[in-house]
Amino acid sequence: MGPIARKKVSKPIRGAPRGSSRPRARRADRQREAPEEDNRYAGALAAALAALLLALAPLAPIEAHGAEALPKLGADLAQTSVSGLSSGAYMAGQIQVAHAKEIIGAGIVAGGPYGCAESEASRAFPFWPTAVAQNAAQALYRCMQTLWGEPEPAELAKRARELAEDGAIDPLEDLESDNVYLYSGKRDQTVALAVVKAAKRFYEEVGVESGNMTLIEGDGGHAFITEEGGAACGLSEAPYLSNCGYDQAKAILGWIYGPLAEEAPEPEGNFIVFDQSAFSSYAAAMAEEGALYVPKTCAAAPGCRVHVALHGCGQSREQAGDAFIKGAGFAEVADTNRIVVLFPQAKRSAINPDGCWDWWGYTGLDFLGKEAPQIAAIWAMVERLSAAQEE
User: Fold this and answer.
1) E-state strands within 236-320
2) What is d(CA 99, CA 375) in angstroms, rounded to the nearest whole number?
3) In this structure, is residue 5 part of a structural domain?
4) Hey, which end of the chain has fewer CB within 10 Å, N or C?
5) What is the pLDDT confidence band of residue 66, given thresholds at 50, 70 and 90?
6) CA quadruple 357, 258, 230, 336: dihedral positive or negative?
7) Cα gap 348→365, rounded to integer Å
8) 358-372: buried (b, 16+ CB within 10 Å) or exposed (e) per residue?
9) Mind listing the pLDDT tens digit for each residue in 137-168?
10) Residue 240 and residue 13: Cα distance in Å, rounded?
11) Distance between CA atoms of residues 44 and 132, nearest Å
């Protein structure tokens, strides 16, 4: 049974303002009088969002004989970074802002600014699922395309400050020294360049130093870009890896961490399928299993860095097998640079048929702060990796 039928009404993040205009009150009355119509509206918008984002045919998953426990590796928590494609890019930004004290950088590929899909209407009348439907509409028409106008970075920065003052996220001052990589494909018809540029302006608004940011306008479509492997450059098709002769994984990690050693021709460490359910609640709508890449040097000695690589819609193991996990290029770079790569996994549901990360509130309206179901689950995984190695 899908989340619409089972999800309880979620409370808004503490400190969210309430609207009081008459038109909004009349709208709320109509919503209470026609819940069935609202459910259909919510489902239709959510389905439209997922359909527009991506649709993938399934590929074979990583072979594994049962999931392992996520290992304790003694990783350096203060050297954590995050990146993602599309919905993964939005989630990467959410994790970065929420845990700004520990995270030192982010890679945003075909994504927009923090909090973009949180609509004014959803904050004024935080009733799930009508509010999530309003967020979904804004996600489609302002945060992917710009039919309703471009995102407003100054207003989104103001919202982030409210959340920081309320303790829902870390102080924004902790973002100032972060290194931020942004990318927009010239043939991307899903997320407009203006939206990615708005993400850059958001970071400027919250104080990230201009020299710490780069925005690449490349040749790709709506996809993660590779040096080799994947679809032809410019195509936006399964498995949403596009061969443009550009090692995007290396570019992201290099921008965040500085000069890197040459990547390995083939990864020599271990790909691990781990029990993700140990970290996530039912509300998080995450898969039972996640994936991890551990270089041999990180298994042997503590102190490695952690990079969280977030798939886009339709790129999960459930839908695309190991295409993103083994084909994006992160493992080859991580192998020679003491970086552990965590690949958390979202799952499909009735309201989220393409397994997108929650950047519009389908897990509940508290989706931007540290206690948001998916952010909390992913961060618990990072903390597990940073725990002291067991003898």
Assistant:
1) 241-243, 270-275, 289-294, 305-310
2) 9
3) no
4) C
5) low
6) negative
7) 19
8) bbbbbbbbbbbbbeb
9) 999 999 999 999 999 999 999 999 999 999 99
10) 34
11) 11
- Torsion-angle region of 285 (φ positive above 0: left; ψ -120 to 50: alpha; else: beta): left
With respect to residue 133, please indicate whether it lies within any of the assigned structural domains.
yes
Q: What is the pLDDT of residues 78-113, one digit of tens each?
A: 999 999 999 999 999 999 999 999 999 999 999 999
Residue 4 domain-assigned? no
How many domains is the chain partitioned into structurally?
1
Q: Is residue 7 part of a domain?
A: no
Instruction: Record the tokens describing residue 202, joined without a space.
Output: 């958001």
Instruction: Return the percentage of the chain with pLDDT > 70, whole number.
Output: 83
Q: Which residues pair with 215 in a beta bridge?
A: 182
Q: Of 379, 312, 384, give the one whose Cα is nearest residue 170.
A: 379
Q: How far is CA 92 from CA 46, 96, 180, 197, in A?
A: 21, 6, 11, 16
What is the token pair recorded at 376? Answer: 């909390």
Residues in CB range of 58: below 8 A, 6 or more apart = 318, 319, 320, 321
Which tokens in the block code for residue 95? 């994790």
Task: Check: CB of residue 39 under 8 Å from CB of residue 129.
Answer: yes
Domain span at residue 164 reads 18-59+69-111+123-386
pLDDT per position as a tens digit, 222-271: 999 999 989 999 999 989 999 999 999 999 999 999 999 999 999 999 99
* Residues catalogued as catalytic: 86, 188, 222
Average pLDDT over residues 185-196: 97
Q: What local confidence, expressed as pLDDT, does residue 129 receive?
A: 87
Residue 231 vs residues 155, 243, 312, 321, 374: alpha-carbon distances, Å:
38, 6, 16, 16, 30
Instruction: Name which of 274, 92, 75 is nearest 181 in CA terms.
Output: 92
The CA distance from 299 to 335, in Å, is 11
Total count of residues recorded for the chain? 391
Neighbours of 50 (CB within 10 A): 23
DSSP labels for 179-223? EEEEEEETT-SSS-HHHHHHHHHHHHHTT--GGGEEEEEES--SS
